[in-house]
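Protocol step 4 of 5: obtain the predicted structure for the target chain.
Materials: sequence only (see below). No template structures provided, no constraints applied. The aim of this step is simply to have a reference model before the mutagenesis design in step 5. Sequence pasted as it appears in the construct record:
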Amino acid sequence: MMKNRFIFSLPVILLAFLFSINLEAQNYFDNFPVKADPKLVGNNLCKRLLETKHQLYFDKGIHYAEVCTWYGALRFAEQTGNKDMIKKLRARFELLFEIEKELLPPPVHVDQNMFGCLPLRFYSITKDKRYLDLGLPYADSQWTLPKNANEEEQKWNKKGYSWQTRLWIDDMYMITIVQSEAYKATGDVKYINRAAKEMVLYLDELQHDNGLFFHAPDVPYYWGRGDGWMAVGMTELLASLPDNDSNRARIMKGYQLMMKNLKKYVNTDGLWNQLIDQPDFWTETSGSAMFAYAMIIGVKNGWLNNEEYAPIARRAWLGLCNYLDSNNDITEVCVGTGKKNSKEYYLKRPRIAGDYHGQAPILWCAYALLEK
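Step 4 output (structure tokens):
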């Protein structure tokens, strides 16, 4: 009897073993080479941020690209339970309450207002009310019409949208991230409802049938980082939006359409080009990192099929790590770029290393890969 039971168990054990190997093979977000270990890369990028000076938005306070990087470092430190790093990131911020108070961006423009996501995130971690009191006005003022509002701003306000609405694609990260963090900090659904309504407007007005977005209506080019802002904006919003929200299905549709079409344009580096659909253009890392982040989060949340998208996201992460230099600066980042109806203009844009536009989304990818 014992012999028969042993013989019967052999194929069961073998099947279980083979199944476990198969599961391991499908875990595309693990077993990275040392130089692409998300925890190592993320820690190095956090340290790099703490070494660098503030980037200012002309004379109007800290630039949104630094805010994005700082926010990413904070979320990475949270994800890894690195209390020492949180302490150091907080010490950098504490100066803004007194010594560096003049560097606080005024809440007068979509780019400046997104600063609010940072103190709101600090509040969610520390429960120090000073952060809430500092951050919440940035979210509230996006829907509070200023006295000197122009006709266009008044029009959007009357329709229930932010007076800062411009129908520029980067708005859909700048607006939605601060409103999402306000929702998380307060539990007040008005913030997430605002963000969702705004996103649907932009999708309905700007998304093309191929899922992508022109840099501007009068500039018919799919610029990588511009589309990247839409990708991460939808991703962050879907991660926060309640399942029963009336706008969720529309946003999910736009997100999945974009991800489906981005698959078609992956280049030989496993990344995306400065102009997404132009194979003769150069690899641009900031937009590529944004697309990788959107796919990683999508796979982990079940919005995207694992077997279809996880290999693309993994390859993108490995490709991005190849562009990190010895200073932990990401290279091949397009400089800040305004719109221009010229293909040559986008081709010849300068490329720089260590710019916060690129450092931020690499950090986002690092903590996304570590999320369970």
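Step 4 remarks: The radius of gyration is 22 Å. Residues 1-25 have pLDDT under 50 and may be disordered.
Proceed to step 5.
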